[in-house]
Amino acid sequence: MEVFAGKDVHIWRLELWLTMTKQAVIIGAGLGGLATAIRLAYGGWDVTVLEQGSRPGGKMNRFERGGFKFDTGPSLITLPHVFERLFKLGGVDFHKILSPVRLDPLFEYRFGSDARFTYSSQLPDLTAEFENFTGSAQDVDGLYRFLELGAKLYNLSEKTFFDRPPMAKPRLKDLPLLLGAPKRHAWGNYKKAVHRYFKNPHIRQIFERYPTYVGASPKDAVGMLALIPYMELAFGGWYVPGGLYRIVEELCEVALRVGIRFEYSSTVADIVTKSGSATGVVTTAGSFFRADAVISNADPGAIHRLTEGNAGRELKPEQRSMSGFVMLIGLNKKLQGLRHHTVCFSDDYDREFSQIFSERKFPDDPTVYVNVPSITDPSMAPVGGESVFVMANAPADTAPWTPEFEAEAVRRVRERLAKSGMPDFFVDARFIDCWTPAWLESEYSTPGGSIYGQVSHGWTGTVFRPSLKDRKIQNLFYVGGGTHPGGGTPTVLMSAEIVSEMVGGAAN
């Protein structure tokens, strides 16, 4: 009798603890979901992560076949100190456990078959390349002035935008920064800003590419994005040996140590509400998870559809960021003379973006990005082979992607690679896997296959992104590239920092 009484007391105490401990349910085990889960768990929350896929990472994932390995999301990271902050919370030294390598050069840019530009991560080497490539002191001077602009914008953003919700009440200490902000350049047109600083058409094209980092067009982006090339040079572009997916794997280890539970192959069917507040989540399998806070790492557009329009934000096709047409190629030979990253520019950059955003069609002559991580890291491919990741920008629209059009897209990409003097990857390919915007939509529940959610066009699209806190349902929050402060791995981690503080009780 005494034994049973003790057991009953134990169960009662467990139930009391579960009742008293705040419970968070996180939808999606992408980078933002993992970071938020860790911060809340170290802040005393009981955290459950629901992931519709069979593994964590979301778009920051890994594809493997026959010894060939590919990062399916970003191929490098910037602002490593943001990653350091998160890993430090779990008692882990980011640099010691992952040994990130600073890439140099960052890119090789190709214009047609002859003109090539090696973009170094070291400013003296980049300056020398500018001098050799353009022969123009004006463009060299423009480089320094443009980076100075980027530094000012980064400093402003770091203090007033990256660490707090948008449109929050300005702090007194931020006033000097706000008053000294280069407003005309920050909120003016990005492309016009580039053209003010550079005269060489190829150099202009290089710097016009940076808005594509957040899925935007240089013709419609704001000058604020000039902070991206500054960040890349000032803080470096870093590669993790074994692939960037190792970051996800190590974060999962931290999460498990702090008691976070993962439920894989769990698709959310409904966010349960009571009196206008989220109280839990129901999966398609019928499981209910009680929550004092629900944090979605899914695209806000997906939540809008999930809740029949009661939450999230529906994006019209013209409001979506770019998608991509991706080819993963397992190559049965080694490549000579290629860099880790190569960008093969289209002959008409303006026409390319007009087709993507205005005509909403895959470009006739697409710019093609090529990432060959096995050049830097031989472990990413079998001996004697290379892992080749190829991507062309595409509109976030699933309609045209029939098998016939996919074959046509392959032809256009292949033609651009040939015009740029690239090897024919298709001749010695062991396999070629193609991922279309339609596939991205089905895999990641992102409307139209949009990679970055709402497009960062104009100052409204940049600042007024879907809110971190749902405007209709209490205790429902958002994290990740689809919300504030925007796309990219470091900004996703920043969104986790901000939303964790908003939820309350998060460790920092």
Could you walk me through the main structural features you see in this protein, from its secondary elements to its overall organization?
- Residues 1-17 have low confidence and may be disordered.
- It is built from 18 helices and 19 strands.
- Strands 7-6-15-16-17-14-18 form a seven-stranded mixed sheet, with helices on both faces.
- The chain is 38% helix and 19% strand.
- Among the domains are: 2-60 and 244-315 and 456-503, FAD/NAD(P)-binding domain (3-Layer(bba) Sandwich), CATH 3.50.50.60; 123-234, no CATH class.
- α2 (31-42) runs parallel beside α12 and α5 (123-134) runs antiparallel to α6.
- α2 (31-42) links the parallel β1 (23-27) and β2.
- The longest helix is centred in the N-terminal third of the chain and has 24 residues, at 137-160.
- The chain starts with a helix and ends in a 5-residue tail after the last helix.
- It is an alpha/beta fold.
- It has helices at 2-20, 31-42, 80-89, 94-98, 123-134, 137-160, 175-179, 183-187, 190-197, 201-208, 227-235, 245-257, 300-306, 349-358, 403-419, 437-444, 458-463, 489-503, and strands at residues 23-27, 46-51, 62-65, 68-71, 101-102, 107-111, 115-119, 238-239, 261-264, 268-274, 277-283, 288-290, 293-296, 323-331, 341-345, 368-371, 386-394, 429-435, 476-478.
- It is globular.
* Number of helical stretches of at least 4 residues: 18
Chain-averaged pLDDT: 90
Helix content: 25-40%
CATH class of the domain at 2-60 and 244-315 and 456-503, please? Alpha Beta
Which blocks of ≥5 consecutive residues have pLDDT under 50?
A: 1-17
- Give Rg in angstroms: 23 Å
